[in-house]
């Protein structure tokens, strides 16, 4: 029952409700066809610089649900953002992009709360008081560096060529194929072999996971998916792979959030105010707590294939919205 509820929530909130239902309710209220309204906004720049609370809440919900599930929060946020007509004009584009990044702080806070014992152990490791904490800390730093450097070098190229609905939908499908074909093979090879707990992770394993994380710079691929699959491939158990993905995400997301908040936070507040970004952050926190707890429980007895099915459905919906000139 819980599995069906959460799966339904992901589908409807992340794409369906936020894309189709919310969009067409706007069109009905204004009396303007959806395609015509977004086209008009893009050509005239007539979009309001305000961010209504309900839109802030929807984006926060999408962020929280999708950030740690292997379905790509960046892809979902981009599609939903365009469907809701948020940041579709030059006057608001930069602030909207900053908004979708800064509300990641809510998802970060969720993992800080849920994995506070692990984070505390890592902190003790940084102070030389925990061998396991130091090992995990070194692994996180090693795994963080490749994607961080690549992202800095190719950020503009990625945004110019890959941050569009078509490439995102393609990444969703590629990721689905990877889940369906690679994960069973990796797990079948692990049968009869010992798999490592997170406390046993090595620098070599972390470096391979970090190299694989570079692939997640393609929006729609999913950082969570890439790190989990890579961690399984290098010999970590499923629980260790998921936990390492979460802990590594704290550093990766934290760096991106801090950078955007410090460089563009003023523009965000000037454009959208303070209350609605805080609302989005709070919604992201609550929904991320629910999503992470469900995912950890679900993967204790099942594999990742439900996410492959979802990714294909998300790609189909996104392409349909694109064909209808809604995104």
Q: What report would you give on this structure?
A:
The chain has 327 residues and is mainly α. The protein has one domain. Helices cover 79% and strands 0% of the residues. It has 14 helices and no strands. The protein has helices spanning 2-30, 34-44, 53-66, 73-83, 90-102, 104-114, 116-126, 131-161, 165-190, 203-213, 223-233, 238-272, 275-298, 305-323. Helix 6 crosses helix 13, helix 7 crosses helix 8 (131-161) and helix 12 (238-272) packs antiparallel against helix 13 (275-298). The protein is globular, with a radius of gyration of 20 Å. The chain starts with a helix and ends with a helix. The relative contact order is 0.19.
End-to-end Cα distance: 33 Å
* Strands, count: 0
What is the overall pLDDT average?
Answer: 85
- Uncertain stretches: 1-48
User: How are helices and strands ordered from N to C?
Assistant: HHHHHHHHHHHHHH
- What is the C-alpha radius of gyration, as a whole number of Å? 20 Å
Count of the domains: 1
Strand content: under 5%
Query: How many DSSP helices?
Result: 14
Helix content: over 70%
Shape call: globular
Structural class: mainly alpha
Main β sheet profile = none
Layout of SSEs?
Elements: H1 2-30, H2 34-44, H3 53-66, H4 73-83, H5 90-102, H6 104-114, H7 116-126, H8 131-161, H9 165-190, H10 203-213, H11 223-233, H12 238-272, H13 275-298, H14 305-323
Helix pairs in contact: 1-3, 1-4, 1-14, 3-4, 3-13, 5-12, 6-12, 6-13, 7-8, 8-10, 8-12, 9-11, 9-14, 10-11, 11-12, 12-13
């Amino acid at each position: 029952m819980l599995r069906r509820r959460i799966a339904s929530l992901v589908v409807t909130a992340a794409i369906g409700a936020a894309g189709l239902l919310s969009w067409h309710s706007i069109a009905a209220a204004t009396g303007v066809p959806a395609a015509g309204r977004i086209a008009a906004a893009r050509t005239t720049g007539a979009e309001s610089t305000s961010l209504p609370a309900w839109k802030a809440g929807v984006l926060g919900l999408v962020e929280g649900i999708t950030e740690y599930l292997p379905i790509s929060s960046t892809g979902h946020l981009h599609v939903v953002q365009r469907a809701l007509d948020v940041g579709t004009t030059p006057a608001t584009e930069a602030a909207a992009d900053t908004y979708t990044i800064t509300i990641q702080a809510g998802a970060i806070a969720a993992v800080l709360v849920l994995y506070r014992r692990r984070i505390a152990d890592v902190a003790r490791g940084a102070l030389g008081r925990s061998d396991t904490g130091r090992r995990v800390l070194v692994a996180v730093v090693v795994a963080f560096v490749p994607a961080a450097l690549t992202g800095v070098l190719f950020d503009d190229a990625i945004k110019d060529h890959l941050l569009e609905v078509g490439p995102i939908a393609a990444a969703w499908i590629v990721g689905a194929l990877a889940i369906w074909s690679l994960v069973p093979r990796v797990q079948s090879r692990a049968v009869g072999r010992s798999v490592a707990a997170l406390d046993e992770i090595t620098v070599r394993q972390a470096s391979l996971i970090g190299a694989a994380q570079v692939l997640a710079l393609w929006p729609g691929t999913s950082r969570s998916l890439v790190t989990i699959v890579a961690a399984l491939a290098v010999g970590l158990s499923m629980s260790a792979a998921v936990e390492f993905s979460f802990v590594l995400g704290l550093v990766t997301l934290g760096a991106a959030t801090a950078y955007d908040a410090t460089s563009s936070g003023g523009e965000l507040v000037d454009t959208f105010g303070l209350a609605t970004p805080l609302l989005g952050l709070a919604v992201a926190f609550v929904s991320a707590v629910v999503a992470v707890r469900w995912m950890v429980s679900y993967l204790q007895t099942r594999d990742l294939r439900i996410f492959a099915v979802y990714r294909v459905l998300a790609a189909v919906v996104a392409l349909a919205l694109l064909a209808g000139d809604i995104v």
